[in-house]
Amino acid sequence: MSDGFGDGPDVPHFVGHRERLKARFREHGGDGLADYELLELILFAGVPRRDTKPIAKALIARFGTFTEVLAAPEARLMEVPGVGASVALHLKIVHAAAKRQARGAARERPLLGSWSAVIDYCRVAMAYEEKEQFRILFLDKKNALIADEVQQTGTVDHTPVYPREVVKRALELSATAIVLVHNHPTCSF
């Protein structure tokens, strides 16, 4: 008797899973998938011959969200069973692409449309940084991002801020507004 997923009772449930998940993505896009399922799709490239669902679920359980998985440092990713150096590197490449996309999207629309948009942008840009950063988002009169710059990088628990440098750079860029951001490496944003 077939279970509808394989060719018979002896076929494991995961046979054909990758193709079914890809078909769901084609039909519904990323919004039609749970975080772990989207992560599974990404893991397919780095884990060609294993069931990626347990790895994806373990990553989400460990880091909390899809975004936090991508932002996690390589060393912490490799603490999860099934994630080796090549998979961790693959996830960091996806993270770098997501950061670049977020910067581009922020430049194309007002950054301060909502505080949640600012927080989401900053989470992608600096979550899981291992050193404290003082970052400045320079905005134009329509609150569109002109530049996102790390002005200072400190230690694990300290970063200096020089107001004169902040103002000087804002004037150089003709920014009409700025958002000052500071992270805490011991927290995950």
Question: What features would you describe in this structure?
Answer:
48% of the residues lie in helices and 12% in strands. It is mainly alpha-helical and 189 residues long. The protein has two domains: 17-100, 5' to 3' exonuclease, C-terminal subdomain (DNA polymerase, domain 1, Orthogonal Bundle); 120-182, Cytidine Deaminase, domain 2. It has a three-stranded antiparallel sheet with strand order 2-1-3, with helices on both faces. A hairpin with a 5-residue loop joins strand 1 and strand 2 (145-153). Helix 2 (35-46) crosses helix 6. The longest helix is centred in the middle third of the chain and has 24 residues, at 85-108. It is elongated. The model is unreliable at 1-6 (pLDDT under 50).
As a percent range, the share of helical residues equals 40-55%
Round the mean pLDDT to the nearest integer and report it.
82
Nearest-angstrom radius of gyration? 21 Å
Unreliable sequence segments? 1-6
Q: Give the end-to-end Cα distance, rounded to a whole number of Å.
A: 50 Å
| Order of H and E elements | HHHHHHHEEHE
The structural class is: mainly alpha
* Strand proportion: 5-15%
Task: Say what the CATH topology of the largest domain is.
Answer: DNA polymerase, domain 1
Q: CATH H-level name of the largest domain... which superfamily? A: 5' to 3' exonuclease, C-terminal subdomain
Known CATH architecture of the largest domain: Orthogonal Bundle
Q: Provide a count of the helices.
A: 8
Q: Class of the largest domain, according to the CATH hierarchy?
A: Mainly Alpha
Q: How many structural domains does the protein architecture include?
A: 2
List how many beta strands DSSP finds: 3
Largest beta-sheet details: 3 strands, antiparallel
With strands numbered from the N-terminus, the spatial order across the biggest sheet is: 2-1-3
